[in-house]
Amino acid sequence: MKLRGVFRATKLPAGQNTIGTKWLFKIKRKSDGSIEKYKARLVAKGFKQKYGIDYTETFSPVVKYVTLRMVVAITKYFGWTLDLLDVVTAFLYGEMKEKVFCAIPEGVEVDEDFDCFELVKATYGLKQASRAWNETFHEFVCSIGF
């Protein structure tokens, strides 16, 4: 998240509230049960966000399952091929429009001049994360001619 520029350390402006964060840990295992790798994800406690302050719009489009099935059927009928695109950690690319501040996560060290993080990009758990990602992706595909 730090490498992607998701947040920056700052002082909390007067009148702003902070959203808490939480670490989620997971052990990924191989088929034989041995440990493949350890995973950690930092999520925002979006349930503490306030409408009109921390977020406004949350809608993001999602394809209906029946539409997806229709596309697959038409593709098969005409002998076309389908390609799949997966953007790893997609939400972390969504540009934030609102000013959202979160508490400094446990275990993260910052200069003592700062007391919170400003979220520059969306993160997991925010109410507007899906919308922010969708708008960023939409702007990108339009910029390359789609």
TrEMBL record:
Residues 6-146 form the Reverse transcriptase Ty1/copia-type domain. SUPFAM superfamilies: DNA/RNA polymerases. This is Reverse transcriptase Ty1/copia-type domain-containing protein. It holds the Pfam family RVT_2.
